[in-house]
């Protein structure tokens, strides 16, 4: 059909383009500019000064937080993927279609409950006088310090990304050609070996993408590290909130934010390359 | 055939896997259920054993005029965000469905990427930028930020519906004498209607409990989730459970409405 | 001859570097049933879509009733189409579907309803007027699609493989419905199909296309009896094709030398035959005779070994192979074969009259 630009076509395509340019691209671009501004007497002044980059990159605290965040997010992505896989696998292969639809519907519900409320609820479970310690007390154990630990942060990260990872893994598993699995059994490949030799390679793209999303979510999250991890160790997201609150140091926060975006881009790029490695797209 | 055949099944392994699924769902729903249970619990510090049934936290919340302000703002903002992001998302979904053009990849990236940027960073960038153009600190700034995040969801939902449409449907309408605008009104929109309403409810729900951006962006006009954050930062109070339960019930109502619209009449008359 | 209803004048369509339709001239006359036939990718659907304004020609002019329509958008042409998928609106019921085109033309509700009901009646689906599309059978949907297109009483109706989704029996029923409808209304039908039986049983004229080019235009009879190109002969699949070289035999008659022997040509073919030229001889499979012993009077004859047989209804197709590896098919009724001791592997003599052979250029 006619491909020339028409008023009709622009009516539908332009609004979103303009909106996302104005309120998505421009803010991010502005963040770059902001990182070169200076702060004097608690007031930001436009300019071009690399002082924020030099200051932030020169601070051991920053690199410590960077390492911590990277390690925590990577651990969370690995842990979530490992814990989610048996669940997604069972839903994909062991449930009836009706049960599978219900399982998917239930997994969607958490997306529409406030993450913050769920994290608060975990405090109730994990605090010193909380549900878990009370129950352990009945057995004559504890109390243990559960809240304000890295373990608690991980529980928060799982709360954040587990449902999404299960769903993404599930969608790649249900599209596996079942005859591949039957062919593997037919060639004397046992149950567990089939999972590693056939199922996981077939679903690799989906599994890697799921892990990537888990990484992205946890890398940028500030709720779990603060409210479950007690703010210690400091992650980049905590550093950003602290930096913005203290003395209008927005340009420095921008440096952290940009470093985070760059890291995410690199990780995303590498993951996608790995996901599609050896595949004709 | 969706399930393995009988022969290759091992009831022990299957049972263990199913048990694991149940445990996984328990983990996912434990905080949601706990929040619900403790919202009706009398104790000041929620734990077990439970105190007695009480609606005092709901009454406490209902008696707080600030909460009502927040609720009004949240609903107002949710409504506007739902309508605007559904309209923008529909336009983008239709553009992707109908046109091929140079730079389409970039267009789609812009349309779909925002939710993958961490909220802390989006919040920071938004607040810095919007205050620069004198838009920060009011309901409008919250709406702007929420639409950026919500429009991609609307687009995805509507695009999925359009991909179920017989590609001949639109040209068939032209062929019968309907102009492009008339076709939009009499064919595309009626066909996509379930998804449009679904997208409307889903984006309203997302806006409803999106809090982080609101926290950064909003000043005077706080939305409900911002209030929740306030509770968290200050004194921990079971009020949050009452608010959380209320938010949950509202969001779920919207989501279930969307679900019914997307799976009900839609597929019955969708594809030929 | 009166002015054609539609004429394609030097029309071509390219998609990027791919040529879908090569420069083509075609006239469609008022009141005829024209079938455009070819395998997928031959440009038949693109031709139809250009006529409907769904593709813009890369060059050339398309006229409808003498008026150039190249720049007319789809919705301003009266060229309704019946789609392969039918493209019925799933969110409208039967009568609303039929009313759609009238509504777009701004016709009032009462008048719309009256005219739509008339057509539902005519297509014998009046009882389904308020049904949803999803509740109809394949044949009923077909009728709704026809009613929806015909309700505006156009001069021309375009049909893009409308029967391809139906089962064999229903297909035959719908063929007669379509043919009768075309006769009664006098509307010009342009029918695109890949099915020879559909095209030949309904059309007054058939256009055969291949790789974006028109190979032959003619009545079904003409095309079936005398395929004009090697492609058409191959495509119809009802002729045996002997590639070879033209020459004159000792008595000065035109002949063709093929791998399986020399064969005499019909008198009229001899006139245009240039000795030395490459060409193919085509002989319809129903025109070949099978003999156990070589008959004395046979002019064109070849010895071949039987390699298989196939029975469809009252006719049988016997497959042979000559010593040179040429496959030959012969179609006969069971009675005609009754006296022959057919057996795979046995040798027979196959003959035909020179007048039954036709030349096609290589």
UniProtKB/TrEMBL annotation, chain A:
Record domain ABC transmembrane type-1: where: 66-271
Native organism taxonomy: Bacteria, Pseudomonadati, Pseudomonadota, Alphaproteobacteria, Rhodobacterales
One cellular component (GO) term of this entry: plasma membrane
Membrane topology, from the record: Multi-pass membrane protein
Protein location: Cell membrane
Pfam families: BPD_transp_1
Transmembrane segments: 12-37, 70-92, 104-126, 146-175, 195-217, 253-276
Family: Belongs to the binding-protein-dependent transport system permease family. CysTW subfamily.
SUPFAM superfamilies xref list: MetI-like (SSF161098)
Record keywords: Cell membrane, Membrane, Transmembrane, Transmembrane helix, Transport
Record PANTHER family: INNER MEMBRANE ABC TRANSPORTER PERMEASE PROTEIN YDCU-RELATED (PTHR42929:SF1), INNER MEMBRANE ABC TRANSPORTER PERMEASE PROTEIN YDCU-RELATED-RELATED (PTHR42929)
Gene Ontology biological-process entries: transmembrane transport
Major site of localization recorded for this protein: membrane
UniProt-recorded name of the protein: Binding-protein-dependent transport systems inner membrane component
From TrEMBL, chain B:
Spans traversing the lipid bilayer: 20-40, 75-94, 106-129, 135-158, 195-220, 240-262
Domain of life: Bacteria
Domain named ABC transmembrane type-1: residues: 71-258
GO cellular component: plasma membrane
PROSITE patterns: ABC_TM1 (PS50928)
Annotated compartments: Cell membrane
Keyword annotations from UniProtKB, A to Z: Cell membrane, Membrane, Transmembrane, Transmembrane helix, Transport
Classification via Pfam families: BPD_transp_1
Organism encoding this protein: Paracoccus denitrificans (strain Pd 1222)
UniProt topology in membrane: Multi-pass membrane protein
Recorded family membership: Belongs to the binding-protein-dependent transport system permease family. CysTW subfamily.
Taxonomic lineage: Bacteria, Pseudomonadati, Pseudomonadota, Alphaproteobacteria, Rhodobacterales
Xref: InterPro entries: Bact_Polyamine_Transport, MetI-like, MetI-like_sf
Name used for this protein in its record: Binding-protein-dependent transport systems inner membrane component
GO BP, sorted A to Z: transmembrane transport
TrEMBL record, chain C:
Gene Ontology CC annotations of this record: ATP-binding cassette (ABC) transporter complex
Organism superkingdom: Bacteria
Any one GO MF annotation of this record: ABC-type transporter activity
SUPFAM superfamilies in UniProt: MOP-like, P-loop containing nucleoside triphosphate hydrolases
Keyword rRNA processing in record: no
Keywords: ATP-binding, Nucleotide-binding, Transport
Gene3D superfamilies: 2.40.50.100, P-loop containing nucleotide triphosphate hydrolases
A family per Pfam: ABC_tran
Start and end residues of each ABC transporter domain: 6-236
ATP-binding keyword on record: yes
Record-stated family: Belongs to the ABC transporter superfamily.
Name of this chain's protein: ABC transporter related protein
């Amino acid at each position: 059909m006619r491909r020339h630009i028409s008023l009709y076509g622009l009516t539908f395509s332009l609004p979103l383009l303009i909106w996302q340019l104005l309120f998505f691209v421009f803010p991010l671009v502005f963040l770059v500019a902001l990182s070169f501004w200076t702060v004097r007497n608690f007031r930001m002044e436009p300019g071009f000064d690399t002082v924020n980059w030099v200051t932030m990159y020169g601070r051991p605290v920053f690199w410590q937080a960077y390492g911590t965040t990277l390690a925590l997010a990577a651990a969370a992505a690995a842990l979530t993927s490992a814990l989610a896989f048996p669940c997604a696998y069972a839903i994909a292969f062991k449930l009836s279609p009706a049960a599978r639809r219900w399982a998917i519907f239930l997994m969607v519900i958490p997306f529409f409950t406030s993450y913050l409320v769920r994290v608060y609820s975990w405090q109730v479970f994990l605090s010193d006088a909380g549900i878990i310690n009370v129950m352990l007390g009945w057995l004559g154990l504890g109390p243990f310090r559960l809240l304000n630990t890295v373990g608690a942060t991980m529980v928060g990260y799982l709360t954040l990304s587990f449902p999404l990872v299960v769903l993404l893994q599930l969608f790649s598993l249900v599209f596996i050609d079942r005859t591949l699995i039957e062919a593997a059994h037919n060639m004397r490949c046992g149950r567990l070996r089939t999972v590693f030799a056939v199922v996981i390679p077939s679903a690799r793209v989906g599994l890697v993408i799921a892990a990537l999303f888990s990484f992205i979510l946890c890398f940028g999250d500030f709720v779990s590290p603060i409210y479950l991890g007690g703010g210690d160790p400091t992650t980049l997201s905590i550093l950003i909130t602290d930096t913005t609150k203290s003395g209008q140091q927005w340009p420095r926060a921008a440096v952290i934010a940009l470093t985070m975006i760059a890291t995410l881009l690199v990780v995303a790029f590498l993951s996608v390359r790995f996901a599609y490695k050896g595949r004709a797209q | 055939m969706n399930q393995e055949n009988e022969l290759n099944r091992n009831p022990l392994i299957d049972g263990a896997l199913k048990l694991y699924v149940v445990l996984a769902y328990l983990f996912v729903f434990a905080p949601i259920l706990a929040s619900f249970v403790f919202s009706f619990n009398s104790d000041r510090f929620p734990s077990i054993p439970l105190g007695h049934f009480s609606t005092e936290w709901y009454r406490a919340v209902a008696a707080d005029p600030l909460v009502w302000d927040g609720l009004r703002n949240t609903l107002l903002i949710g409504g506007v965000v739902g309508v605007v992001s559904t309209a923008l998302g529909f336009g983008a979904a239709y553009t992707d469905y109908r046109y091929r053009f140079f730079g389409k990849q970039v267009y789609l990236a812009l349309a779909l990427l925002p939710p993958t940027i961490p909220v802390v960073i989006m919040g920071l960038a938004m607040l810095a930028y919007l205050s620069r153009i004198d838009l920060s600190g009011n309901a409008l700034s919250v709406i702007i930020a929420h639409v950026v995040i919500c429009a991609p969801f609307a687009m995805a939902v509507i695009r999925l519906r359009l991909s179920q449409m017989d590609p001949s449907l639109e040209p068939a309408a032209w062929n019968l004498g309907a102009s492009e605008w008339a076709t939009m009104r009499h064919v595309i929109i009626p066909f996509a209607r379930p998804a449009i309403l679904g997208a409307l409810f889903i984006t309203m729900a997302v806006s409803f409990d999106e809090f982080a951006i609101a926290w950064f962006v909003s000043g005077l006009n706080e939305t409900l989730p911002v209030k929740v954050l306030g509770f968290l930062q200050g004194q921990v109070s079971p009020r949050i459970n009452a608010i959380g339960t209320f938010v949950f019930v509202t969001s779920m109502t919207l989501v279930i409405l969307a679900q019914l619209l997307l799976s009900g009449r839609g597929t019955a008359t969708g594809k030929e | 001859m009166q002015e054609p209803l539609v004429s394609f004048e030097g029309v071509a369509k390219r998609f990027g570097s791919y040529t879908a339709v090569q420069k083509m001239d075609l006239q469609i006359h008022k009141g005829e049933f024209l079938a455009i036939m070819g395998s997928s990718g031959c440009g038949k659907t693109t031709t139809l879509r250009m006529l409907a304004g769904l593709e813009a020609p890369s060059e050339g002019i398309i006229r409808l009733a003498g008026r150039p329509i190249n720049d007319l958008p789809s919705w301003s042409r009266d060229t309704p189409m019946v789609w392969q998928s039918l493209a019925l609106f799933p969110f409208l019921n039967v009568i609303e579907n039929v009313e759609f085109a009238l509504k777009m033309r701004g016709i009032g509700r009462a008048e719309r309803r009256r005219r739509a009901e008339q057509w539902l009646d005519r297509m014998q689906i009046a009882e389904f007027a308020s049904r949803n599309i999803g509740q109809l059978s394949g044949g009923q949907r077909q009728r709704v699609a026809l009613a929806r297109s015909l309700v505006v009483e156009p001069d021309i109706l375009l049909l893009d493989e409308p029967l391809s989704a139906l089962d064999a029996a229903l297909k035959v029923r719908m063929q007669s419905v379509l043919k009768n409808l075309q006769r009664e209304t006098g509307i010009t039908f342009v029918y695109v199909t890949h099915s020879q039986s559909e095209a030949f049983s309904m059309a007054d004229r058939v256009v055969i296309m291949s790789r974006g080019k028109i190979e032959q235009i003619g009545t079904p009879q003409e095309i079936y009896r005398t395929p004009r190109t090697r492609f058409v002969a191959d495509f119809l699949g009802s002729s045996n094709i002997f590639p070879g070289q033209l020459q004159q035999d000792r008595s000065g008659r035109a002949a063709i030398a093929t791998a399986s022997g020399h064969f005499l040509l019909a008198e009229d073919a001899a006139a245009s035959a240039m000795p030395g030229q490459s060409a193919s001889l085509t002989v319809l499979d129903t025109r070949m005779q099978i003999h156990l012993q070589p008959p004395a009077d046979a002019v064109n004859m070849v010895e071949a070994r039987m390699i298989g047989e196939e029975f469809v209804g009252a006719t049988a197709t016997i497959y042979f192979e000559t010593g040179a590896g040429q496959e030959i098919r012969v179609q006969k009724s069971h009675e005609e074969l009754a006296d022959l001791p057919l057996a795979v592997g046995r040798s027979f003599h196959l003959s035909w009259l020179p007048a039954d052979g036709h030349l096609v250029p290589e």
